[in-house]
Amino acid sequence: MEQKKSVWTIILAIIITAIIAGGGVYLWQNQPANEPISYSTAEVSTVSTGTRLFDWTVEGLENMALECGSEHTEGYFKNLVETYKDTSLIHYAFEYNGESQNPTAWGISLLPNLMGYSSLDEFQNDFNVCAVGGLYPTRMNGDWLLFESSCGSGYSDDSGLPIGCDEVKKVVEPTIEFN
Predict the structure, then answer these.
(1) Is the separation of the CB atoms in 127 and 57 below 8 Å?
(2) pTM higher than 0.85 for the full model?
(3) Using H for helix, E for strand and C for coil, what is the string for the chain?
(4) How many domains does the chain have?
(5) pLDDT of residue 152
(6) 51 and 6 within one domain
């Protein structure tokens, strides 16, 4: 009788191990393989994603460079725009879930690092915005360039409510990591 009990214990242990291992393999295989970043919203926001084509123009990039005082060789931005022609940015919009004043959303956009930037300075030299508003180049790796939206001017409507964009940014921004 004792021997029969230990056989059933072994069979049960094998079944449990198979279920755990199989579940682990299933989860591993079903992770989004092409997601360029990971982040946490800590339940303060909902996130939506989308794409849009690269729409910077030679003239627009030249004007941004002029505003920021960065210098580039003749034809540099023509090459940059050609490099990114037909390339999509991935956009993440984080919308604050609580009651707040506007703006309620904060966004980031990712662009493939097709120019091969090796430093944040190089990336910022080409895409920096020295005016209020727009997408600001904030971090990068060998594969991706990350732009962050601003939360506006800091205007308060004196309601005492938090500014949703600021609240979302405080929670999400420190958790963003490249995959």
Answers:
(1) no
(2) no
(3) CHHHHHHHHHHHHHHHHHHHHHHHHHHHHCCCCCCCEECCCCCCEEEEEEEEECCCCHHHHHHHHHHHCCCCCCCHHHHHHHHHCCCEEEEEEEEECCCCECCCEEEEEEEECCCCCCCHHHHHHHHCCCCCCCEEEEEECCCEEEEEECCCCCCCCCCCCCEHHHHHHHHHHHHCEEC
(4) 2
(5) 79
(6) no
pLDDT, mean of each 10-residue run, the chain (179 residues) = 62 55 40 78 91 96 93 96 97 95 94 98 94 88 96 83 94 96
- Tell me which residue has tokens 């600001």: 136
Using alpha carbons, list the distances in angstroms from residue 50 to 18, 53, 154, 170: 38, 10, 27, 22
Residues 58 and 69 in one domain: yes
Query: Which of 17, 52, 51 is closest to 34 using CA atoms?
Result: 51
- For residue 61, which amino acid is it? L
Tokens of 57: 């123009």
Rounded to whole angstroms, the Cα distance separating 118 from 75 reads: 21
Write out the residue range of the structural domain in which residue 17 sits.
1-31
Token pair belonging to 32 = 């989004």
